[in-house]
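Hey, can you fold this one?
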Amino acid sequence: MLKLAIDSVLKDLLEVLTQLSDEQYATPCAQLSGASIGAHVRHILELFVCLENQYQNGEINYELRARDLSLQTHPKQAIELIKSLGTLLDKPDKNLTLYQSFDQGILKIQTNYQRELAYNLEHCVHHQALIRVALLSMPQVIYNHHFGVARSTMQHRKQCAQ
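Sure. Predicted structure:
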C-alpha cells in the first residue's frame, strides 16, 4: 500500500515536470522565496535516493545526501530519476538507525524502512504543495486536484462535503 502511494505521488510529479520548460523548472520563483521548482524537486528526490543508498548499511543520515545541483537545473535528469525510483523503493522492511543533527549534537533514533518511506512520502507531498504555489503563475500546466495535498486533508475535505 505504501509503495502504491509513493508511486502515485511520484507519477503526479512526473506529469508536472514533463510540462515544464527548462527555464520554468530552473528559474528562481518569488513565490518560493527565491528557490526554483527544480530545487524543490531535487530536495524531494535526494531524500529518496539517500534512503535507497543507505538502506544496506542500516544507518540513515539525510544530511549526507548528494545535493546534485544538476537535478535542479535539468528536468529531464529528474524525470529519469523518478522513473528509476519506482523500481528501487521496494525493499523488505528492516530496522534502521536515523542520525539527525541538532544544535546540541547528533541524535540517534531507531526507525525502520517502512517508517522512512512514509516520511519521504509526506515530505514529497509537502514540497509538492510548495511547487503547486509556483504553478499558480503557469496556468498552462495541468495537474491533479490532489497534487500537493496530504491524504488526511483530502479525507477531511471529503467528510466536510458530506
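The longest strand covers residues 95-102. Let me know if you want another pass with a different chain boundary.
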